[in-house]
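Quick one:
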Amino acid sequence: MAINRALRHYRAAYALLLRLYPRPFQQRFAEGMAQTFHDLCRERRAAGRGLFLFALSAFLETSLEIAKENTMQWTQMQRTVLRVALVALGLLMVPLVASRIVEGWNWGPGAFVFTYVMFFATGMAYALIARHAKAVAYKAAVALALVAGFVLGWSTMVHMSETENPLNLVYFGVLAVGAAGAALARLEPRGMARALFAMSAALVAAWFITQVLYPDTPAGPVWNVGVMHGGFVLLFAAAGLLFRHASLHASND
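Output:
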C-alpha cells in the first residue's frame, strides 16, 4: 500500500512538472511521457527496485529538457535581454569583489543596484542600436561611444559624490548632447558622426568651463580615473570617424 501511494505521488509530481513545457509540446507529448514514466516506475517496483533515485534522475533530465524547449520558444529580443542581463551580472562581480578587498570601499545595496542598472542599460543600448547594422565600423563606433560615455558618466558621478560641486554637472551635458544628437540622427551613421563630433566639442567646452573659467574647481572627474580630458575627446572623435566611415560605406553600396 505504501509503495502504491509513493508511485501515485511520483506520477502526480511528474505530471505537474510536465506542465512547464511550452503548450504545443504539452499537447503532443505530455500524456505519453507521463504514461511512460508511470510504466517504468511500475516495472521497477515489480522488480523490487527503489523508486527514489530513478524518479530523481527522471525529474532532473526532464527539467533540463523543459529549460531547453522553453529557450527555443523565446524570441530574439528575449534572448538578447537574457544575455545582456547575465553579462551585466558578471561585470557587477568586479565592484562586488573589490568592495570586499579594497579598504574604504563602502558601497550600500543601492549603489550596487544602480551600478547593475547602468551596466544593463549600456548593454541593451548597444544590442538595440547595433543589431540592425551590418557594417563592422558602425558596430565598433557604437561600442566605443557607449563605453566612453559610460566611463565619463561614471567618473562624473563619483567625483560629484566626493566634491559635491554642482559645476561638474557640465559633464552630464556632454552626454546629453550625444543623446540628443543620436535622437535627431535617428541612428543614421552620418548623423551619428555629427553627434559624436559634437560631443568632442562639448567636452572641450566643459574642460574650458571647469578648468579655465573656474580654476579653483577641483580637477575634473576624468582625472580621477587617470585619463586626461583629451583622451575622451579622442575617443568620441574616433567613434565619430568610425560612424563617418560606415556612412561612406553605406553610400558606396
